[in-house]
Amino acid sequence: MGFFFEVLIGGLLSGVLYALVALGFVLIYKASGVFNFAQGAMVFFAALTFVGFTEVLPGWTGLEGGGQAVFWLAFVLALASMVVLGILTEKVVLRPLVNQPPITLFMATIGLTFLIEGIAQGIWGANVRGLELGIDDEPIGWLMDSVNILVSKFDVFAALAAGILVVTLALLFQYTRVGRALRAVADDHQAALSIGIPLQHIWAIVWAVAGFVALVAGLIWGSRNGVQFALTFTALKALPVLILGGFTSVPGAIVGGLIIGSTEKLAEVYIGPFVGGGIESWFPYVLALAFLLFRPEGLFGEKHIDRV
Amino acid sequence: MIVNDLVDVPSMDTHAARIGDVILDLQGISLSFGGVKALSNISFDVREHEIRSIIGPNGAGKSSMLNVINGVYHPQEGRIMFRGEQRKEMDPHRAASQGIARTFQNIALFKGMSVLDNIMTGRNLKMKCNFLQHALFWGPAQREEIAHRIKAEEVIDFLEIQNIRRTPVGRLPYGLQKRVELGRALAAEPSLLLLDEPMAGMNVEEKQDMCRFILDVNDQFGTTIVLIEHDMGVVMDISDRVVVLDYGKKIGDGVPDEVKNNPDVIAAYLGVAH
Amino acid sequence: MLYREAGQFKASYQEDQQIFTIRQDRIGFWAILAVFFLAVPLLANSYWLQAILIPVLIFSLAAIGLNILTGYAGQLSLGSAAFMAVGAFGAYNFMLRIDGMPFLVGIVLGGLSAAAVGIVFGLPSLRIKGFYLAVATLAAQFFIVWALVKFPWFSNYSSSGVITAQRIEILGFAFDTPVTKYLLTLAIVCALALVAKNMVRSSTGRAWMAVRDMDVAAEVIGIRLLHTKLQAFAVSSFYCGVAGALYAYTYLGTVEPEGFNLDLSFKILFMIIIGGVGSMMGSFLGAAFIVLLPIFLNIAMHSTLGGAIPASFASNLELIIFGGLIIFFLIVEPHGLARLWQIGKEKMRLWPFPH
Fold first, then answer.
1. Beta carbons of C219 and B124 less than 8 Å apart
2. B46: domain range?
3. How many CB atoms lie within 10 A of CB A188?
4. Between B177 and A32, residue with greater pLDDT
5. Are A179 and A173 in contact (CB under 8 A)?
6. C203–B95 CB contact, under 8 Å
7. Which chains share 3+ C-beta pairs under 8 angstroms with A?
8. What are the distances in angstroms from CA C3 to CA C6, C339, C350?
9. Which residue on chain B is closest to C201 by alpha carbon?
10. In this predicted model, what pLDDT tens digit does every residue of C65-113 receive, in sequence order?
11. C133-158 pLDDT, tens per residue?
12. How far is residue A143 from each of residues A6, A147, A258, A262, C110, measured CA to CA in Å?
């Protein structure tokens, strides 16, 4: 029984990581109706930029390498880079394509993925980097002792970070003026413009927040698995998360992430041995497929009605 | 096929004589979307060879009515009788194969294809070759394509759109697009034609043309027409009978003169005096 | 002046239906065919044949397949490489396990296996629309590659999952030199391209395009949506399957499932975007572009900057240029190179007049 819980918790925690990436998708989709396939590349870019800055800052500023000051300075600089990246993306890629069908925009973001990867690696190099966040990947002592379950401190930290992020974002969208403006823009650009919502500012805010989420996701993923190219394709795992949770729902991203993370691990452990393992690579997609057939709008999304 | 340039509305006697039996009968149709009731207990019939108009203020449920006849929407209650077959709901494919064709309020043309191709898609149900025969092309597929091309060209001649047959429809002005959509519906040689606001957004000349086409279709091919239209002049002039809807309910049914003087209808359109 | 339609009248619908309605186009087409069938084998060296022409032909075929599904029928697919894999492994197994299986029949059977798998993964397409369909095709991509690796039967129990294509022999004649392989590939691709063109200009193609443009209206006309979509999936997967089989037999010689990964699927998608979505010629142009670009980049960098550039920089540059070009084409010319070609021809028709 203990083993089952371990697998479950492990799955839930990796689900949290998926949810973090999915959050970025939801934000952009909510605000601009675009499914930003390049979100994964942006997570990669954020992590790589952060690590890159931690490496060069000591040389530029004379600060102590690996210390707190460098960490936070690198964080701020990385965040700024993300915001710039976001705004450039909106201006150069999305604005010119604004009237095209969603498939075109989606394909443009696929192109963007490759572009961002090439640039990130071009600037900072293609080596795999480690990321130190200062939290150890060690089992929590008392949990181990009392109920014999192996849960790492790091995972709990990641879950907490994600949880705080989600709650903050959900509150932001629901209860603040800015949040309301964001939802208005997502619904209908023209109408939002006509009541005086400053579209440019709103989009800048959205991309800044999405950039922040990407940075957090990048830091956590990066310290877990190392900062490498493959990070980009974890973005693909976010697709099933979004389908389960609904493309427009912030809590949906978390719930979807948890479900995908846990079912993925459970399937691998309990069904995997019958077929030789490796189920993780496709199980989430097949699950998402099943969902699409029976509940295409996801658990929390909005139903889409075609008017003829 | 010769196109009549001077078309008179046929005299009422010969026209009325042609109107046949009931081919479409709707009984007690109710349709809701979630909490919104679009149609409540609507019943009316359509006779063969007649021009039946459905009128009513915006949001009355007229397009929904056509969608029910066509099978795009399925009513929660009621029955549909078409050509002697009683049914709870229609299915788009069956409707098409039994000879019902329609146009849409917001033009539903295939924007990526040319006018000729759009009209040819109207012939789709009549084309019997399978895709393997198409893959080979030479032989039965080519012969079939030519045979149906001839028919499509007849429709093009009838609607006088020869010069734009190769133009992608997305590039045509609104009035011509509506005409092409009519052409696509006509290409199927329907026995029942459903037209959803075919003259919306047109100027006087275009309306006259469209009127002429509709009358010709009814006159020359004997096609039964169910027409949704807002222009009262047109409706009263060309319709044999009229149904009036308001807020999903039927408030009038009869020949144009009767309906015109029906107090409920007047109230619905002009509002009630306080 | 040379490129004029004046005087070319079509006196029957038959004439109007030709693929090339302008005589100069017809002459040009046969001339190009003559060059590729006759001149190239005599003049090209084996590097050009093996490393450039054969892969361009094979990818053109895969691009035609994806174009049928995504360009004409409007169903987005991110799994074309997986269907190539099914074709490759299918053809291999048919030829391995059935004695005396003729090569061409084996290739067709490989294609049919891919078509069958395509139909299975296309079944959800009735209930889900183009964009969400991408997920179904992603599922296909990951599942198929996983299955080919996990079940060693497919690779005849080879330890690494790699299969080696058998010798190609048709009616006793062995196709084992670059020239013969090239001509065989060229013949197969040309034949299948003609078949695709025929399907596209018939009511099958019109039904696909109708479903793409407005499926509700298509249904109302009487087009069966599920049947049409599955047909597109089947035909498209068949083409990708045959391309995959050729990939194994006339190009690489040895293949493994991981070689047909998501990256390759994206490459094929890029081919149709750059070449022109929904265009036969675009498939060829796009495939040529994607195959030739890395080679040109390599040559350009070597000649301008000497050999001192690390390989990683080159592959980065490739990523940046691919990504940038996709965005560029989608913004500036969504109909890709094929449309640019068409615009060029239209200018030619008017030359020397400006309009």
1. no
2. 16-98+245-274
3. 11
4. B177
5. yes
6. no
7. B, C
8. 9, 18, 8
9. B134
10. 999 999 898 888 999 999 999 999 999 999 888 888 888 899 999 999 9
11. 888 888 899 999 988 888 888 887 77
12. 11, 6, 21, 20, 55
The predicted pLDDT at position C86 comes to 94
The answer to whether B215 and B238 have CB atoms below 8 angstroms apart is yes
Q: What CATH number should be reported for the domain whose range is C44-350?
A: 1.10.3470
CB pairs under 8 A between A and B: 6
Q: List Cβ neighbours of B218 (8 Å cut-off, separation of 6 or more).
A: B49, B51, B224, B225
Domain that holds residue A92: 2-294
Q: How many domains are contained in chain A? A: 1
Q: What is the enclosing helix (H) or strand (E) of C175?
A: none
pLDDT in tens, B114-158: 999 999 999 998 888 888 888 888 888 889 999 999 999 999 999
Closest Cβ opposite residue C222 in set B72, B111, B125: B125
Q: What does the block give as tokens for B111?
A: 């924007």
Domain with residue B76: its CATH number is 3.40.50.300
Give the domain CATH number at A237: 1.10.3470
Q: Determine how β-strand B241-246 pairs with β-strand B51-55.
A: parallel
Provide the ipTM.
0.85
Closest by Cβ to C206, choosing from B97, B121, B149? B121
Domain ranges for chain C, please list them.
Answer: 44-350
> Which DSSP string corresponds to C41-55?
HHH--HHIIIIIIHH
Q: How many domains does chain B have?
A: 1
Structure tokens at A185: 């823009």
Distances (CA, A) of A254 to A24, A234, A299, B73: 11, 16, 11, 36
**Torsions phi, psi for C77 (to 5 deg):** -130, 130
* Maximum Cα interatomic distance, chain C, rounded to a whole number of Å: 66
Q: How many CB atoms lie within 10 A of CB C48?
A: 14
Residue pLDDT, tens place only, A158-213 = 778 777 887 788 787 778 887 788 778 777 777 877 888 887 777 778 888 888 88
Which chains contact B through at least 3 pairs of Cβ atoms less than 8 Å apart? A, C
Q: Tell whether A158 is covered by a domain.
A: yes
Q: Is A66 helix (H, G, I), strand (E, B) or coil?
A: coil
The predicted structure's pLDDT at residue B53: 94
Length reported for chain B: 274
In a domain, A306, yes or no: no
Of A121, A109, A115, the C-alpha closest to A49 is: A121
In the structure, what pLDDT confidence band is assigned to residue B3 with cuts at 50, 70 and 90?
very low
Separation between Cα atoms, residue A75 and residue A68, nearest integer Å: 11
B4 pLDDT above the threshold of 50: no
Cα separation, B172 vs A165, whole angstroms: 51
* pLDDT tens-digit map of A43-88: 888 888 888 888 887 777 777 666 777 888 888 888 899 989 888 8
Angle at A28 between CA A27 and CA A32, to 5 degrees: 125
Q: What are phi and psi of B2, to 5 degrees?
A: -110, 135
- Confirm if C327 and C314 have CB atoms less than 8 A apart: no
Q: How far is CA C140 from CA C127, C137, C195, in A?
A: 17, 5, 26
Angstrom distances, CA of residue C278 to CA of A212, C198, C271: 39, 14, 12
B79: which 2 tokens?
């029955």
Tokens of B211: 């009127």
Nearest residue on chain C to A34, judged by CA atoms?
C131
**Cβ pair A108:C317 closer than 8 A:** no
Indicate whether B221 pLDDT > 60: yes
List, in sequence order, the alpha helices (H) in chain A: 2-32, 39-61, 68-88, 102-124, 141-147, 153-175, 177-187, 189-194, 199-225, 231-245, 250-270, 272-275, 283-294
Q: Considering the domain boundaries, does residue B253 fall inside one?
A: yes
